[in-house]
Amino acid sequence: MSHPVSTCALCPRLCRPVCPVAVGSGREAAVPTAIASVLWDHARGRVSDALAASAASLCVDCGACRSFCQLDAPFPDHLRGARVALAGALPHAVPSPEPLRALEGSGVTCVIETDGRPFGDALSQRLQRSVRRWRTGDALGVAAIDGMDLKGPHAAQIRAQASGLALVVAHGGVAKVLSRLGVPFTWLHELVPSISGVASCCAPGAAAPLGCCGGAGPLVVQHPADARRVAQAWAARAEPGVRVVDARCQAHLAAAGHAVPDAIDSLIADLA
Ligand code: SF4
Fold first, then answer.
1. Which atom of ligand 1 is nearest to 76's Cα?
2. Ligand 1, atom 3: nearest CA belongs to which residue?
3. What is the C-alpha to C-alpha distance for residues 199 and 21, in angstroms, rounded to an integer?
4. Which residue from 4, 104, 207, 209 lies 20 to 30 Å from 261 (Cα-Cα)?
């Protein structure tokens, strides 16, 4: 087994308070060092593939444990590798990316829409110029990001379709795919600062009451009940009137019973 897991498995559980899954779910099994211990045992044939895959997916890939670690152990990288190696043993099958949809409209600025809200129309009115729309029903396939071939056909199509465009995103899953592929983009709340929110685990410029609301993968796909518990913990800690910058957070919190406006809501409301 590689160095990071041996390091983590032997370390006291100091990273517990920084892991949003451990804090939000309240599960001892989600503490990064506990996950490392399971992978350590798996490497020695002491636990099943299913248990190791389940442990490695108790994560939202936020990177907080690495930022906190005094040894800078790349534990999130190791977890990604474990999930890919154990993909067949994950609690739920990883959905394949949907085929990309054609762009709509004209203009260099292009919004990536992930739900039914008229994000492109609203931004066009706000900026007083044409804005294209790129609609996606699966955030460009973010659920499959761990195993995505960065030189494969799906990645190549995204890069080709993005070429020459100024992409604007408001969804952490889309941002993750584009970042992994090296495709530049701008967050909506950075482009229109007056609508900036105050919380998101992955958008810059946002301070989070809890590092993540649980809406990111692999947790939300592999452990939906834990993801809901993280959302409840996030909502319990949130300041009254909190807004989020990220449509993924908004959708996840809404599914957990918490209506929180996001940057797209603010953009549309400002135009009303
Ligand atoms: S990357 Fe984030 S969610 Fe995953 S184990 Fe580390 S702190 Fe927890």
1. 1
2. 59
3. 16
4. 104
Give the start-to-end residue ranges of the domains of the chain.
3-89, 98-272
- Ligand 1 is surrounded, with C-beta below 6 A, by 18-21, 32, 59-65, 75-76
Measured between alpha carbons, how far is 139 from 28 in angstroms, rounded to an integer?
Answer: 31
pLDDT below 50 — which residues of the chain? 1-3
Query: pTM score, two decimals?
Result: 0.91
pLDDT value at residue 206? 60
Position 124 scores a pLDDT of 95
**15 Cα nearest atom in ligand 1:** 7
Count Cβ atoms within 10 A of the Cβ of residue 257 and give its class: 0-12 exposed, 13-18 middle, 19 or more buried.
Answer: exposed
Which residues are CB-contacts of 140 (< 8 A; sequence separation ≥ 6)?
Answer: 97, 100, 112, 158, 173, 174, 177, 178
Provide the residue type at 217 as one letter: G
pLDDT at 202: 64
